[in-house]
Amino acid sequence: MEFNVTLLGQAITFAILVWFTMKFVWPPLTNMMDERAKRIADGLAAAERGKQDLEAAEKRVADELRKAKQQSTEIVMAAEKRASQIVDEAKDVARTEGARIVAEAKADIDQEVLRAKEALRAQVAELAVTGAEKILRKEIDSAKHADLLASIKAEF
């Protein structure tokens, strides 16, 4: 095999190319690949943190929903209890008011009955006096008859 100058020139050129590539081209490429790998790793880590944050947020939301449901149930129960109390109080007030109205009505009826009896007594006494006056027109003494009528009124 013969080595000639062309082959030797090509070998030297190749060696210079390899040296130049390793000195000036390879380090920036390596740095870019390292930076890209670091960005990818950071992105994956951020995605993992986001996933964990999402899970934690979902747990907090579930807890808050459970608490809100429990509070709403308690509020509804308290409202129902208060509504029941209000209804009971209203029934008691209505019963008391009804009893008072009935008592007043009975008292009014009793008073009207007494007034009617008095009016009836007065009419009966007047009729008796009128009748007696017609029968006894000759012997009428007002004072005696007034005493007699008062005693008759008292009897009724």
From TrEMBL:
<dbReference type="InterPro" id="IPR028987">
    <property type="entry name" value="ATP_synth_B-like_membr_sf"/>
</dbReference>
<feature type="coiled-coil region">
    <location>
        <begin position="44"/>
        <end position="82"/>
    </location>
</feature>
<keyword id="KW-0138">CF(0)</keyword>
<feature type="transmembrane region" description="Helical">
    <location>
        <begin position="6"/>
        <end position="26"/>
    </location>
</feature>
<comment type="function">
    <text>F(1)F(0) ATP synthase produces ATP from ADP in the presence of a proton or sodium gradient. F-type ATPases consist of two structural domains, F(1) containing the extramembraneous catalytic core and F(0) containing the membrane proton channel, linked together by a central stalk and a peripheral stalk. During catalysis, ATP synthesis in the catalytic domain of F(1) is coupled via a rotary mechanism of the central stalk subunits to proton translocation.</text>
</comment>
<dbReference type="GO" id="GO:0046933">
    <property type="term" value="F:proton-transporting ATP synthase activity, rotational mechanism"/>
</dbReference>
<comment type="similarity">
    <text>Belongs to the ATPase B chain family.</text>
</comment>
<keyword id="KW-0472">Membrane</keyword>
<keyword id="KW-1133">Transmembrane helix</keyword>
<protein>
    <recommendedName>
        <fullName>ATP synthase subunit b</fullName>
    </recommendedName>
</protein>
<dbReference type="InterPro" id="IPR005864">
    <property type="entry name" value="ATP_synth_F0_bsu_bac"/>
</dbReference>
<dbReference type="GO" id="GO:0012505">
    <property type="term" value="C:endomembrane system"/>
</dbReference>
<keyword id="KW-0406">Ion transport</keyword>
<dbReference type="GO" id="GO:0046961">
    <property type="term" value="F:proton-transporting ATPase activity, rotational mechanism"/>
</dbReference>
<keyword id="KW-0175">Coiled coil</keyword>
<keyword id="KW-0997">Cell inner membrane</keyword>
<dbReference type="InterPro" id="IPR050059">
    <property type="entry name" value="ATP_synthase_B_chain"/>
</dbReference>
<dbReference type="GO" id="GO:0005886">
    <property type="term" value="C:plasma membrane"/>
</dbReference>
<keyword id="KW-0813">Transport</keyword>
<comment type="subunit">
    <text>F-type ATPases have 2 components, F(1) - the catalytic core - and F(0) - the membrane proton channel. F(1) has five subunits: alpha(3), beta(3), gamma(1), delta(1), epsilon(1). F(0) has three main subunits: a(1), b(2) and c(10-14). The alpha and beta chains form an alternating ring which encloses part of the gamma chain. F(1) is attached to F(0) by a central stalk formed by the gamma and epsilon chains, while a peripheral stalk is formed by the delta and b chains.</text>
</comment>
<keyword id="KW-1003">Cell membrane</keyword>
<dbReference type="InterPro" id="IPR002146">
    <property type="entry name" value="ATP_synth_b/b'su_bac/chlpt"/>
</dbReference>
<keyword id="KW-0066">ATP synthesis</keyword>
<comment type="subunit">
    <text>F-type ATPases have 2 components, F(1) - the catalytic core - and F(0) - the membrane proton channel. F(1) has five subunits: alpha(3), beta(3), gamma(1), delta(1), epsilon(1). F(0) has four main subunits: a(1), b(2) and c(10-14). The alpha and beta chains form an alternating ring which encloses part of the gamma chain. F(1) is attached to F(0) by a central stalk formed by the gamma and epsilon chains, while a peripheral stalk is formed by the delta and b chains.</text>
</comment>
<dbReference type="GO" id="GO:0045259">
    <property type="term" value="C:proton-transporting ATP synthase complex"/>
</dbReference>
<dbReference type="Pfam" id="PF00430">
    <property type="entry name" value="ATP-synt_B"/>
</dbReference>
<keyword id="KW-0812">Transmembrane</keyword>
<keyword id="KW-0375">Hydrogen ion transport</keyword>
<comment type="function">
    <text>Component of the F(0) channel, it forms part of the peripheral stalk, linking F(1) to F(0). The b'-subunit is a diverged and duplicated form of b found in plants and photosynthetic bacteria.</text>
</comment>
